[in-house]
Specification:
Layout: E1 6-12, E2 19-23, H1 27-54, E3 65-69, E4 73-78, E5 81-86, H2 91-103, H3 110-116, H4 122-126
């Protein structure tokens, strides 16, 4: 949020039951944004798995995040963090650099990575 041009930033839970944010969003908009981010993250992960099955070793796995750029703003997610930013030159690069530094590389199994943030035995939670 300290970067000029960032409208809002937050974190969403993989399960979809909780989120946190800072910035110019209402609570309801932030809730919908967390649902949008969770759904897009799952969809992008599935699509990269499909692509990897046809082009083994293409380098698109593990999925690190996604970006949607509109006319006036961009939404980006890395791991389970999201940001809404204005479309300014170089702003997206700055925000993505900070988000990647915060999250680090996502493990090969997205579910394990996101559940690990919830705590407990992630292997037991998934099987």
């Amino acid at each position: 949020m300290a970067i000029p041009g960032v409208i809002a930033a937050g974190e969403y839970a993989y399960r979809g039951d909780r989120f946190s944010y800072q910035g110019a969003l209402t609570d309801e908009f932030a809730r919908m944004a967390s649902i949008l981010c969770r759904a897009n993250t799952l969809a992008v992960n599935m699509q990269s798995e499909i692509l990897e099955s046809f082009a083994d070793g293409c380098g698109c796995r593990p999925t690190q995040g996604w970006i949607v750029r509109g006319e006036k703003l961009t939404i980006c997610a890395v791991g389970n963090y999201f940001s809404f930013i204005e479309n300014h030159d170089e702003l997206l690069n700055d925000v993505m650099t900070i988000m990647r530094a915060k999250v680090g590389d996502v493990e090969s199994d997205l579910l394990v990575n996101l559940y690990a943030r919830l705590g407990g035995n992630t292997k037991e939670a998934l099987y």
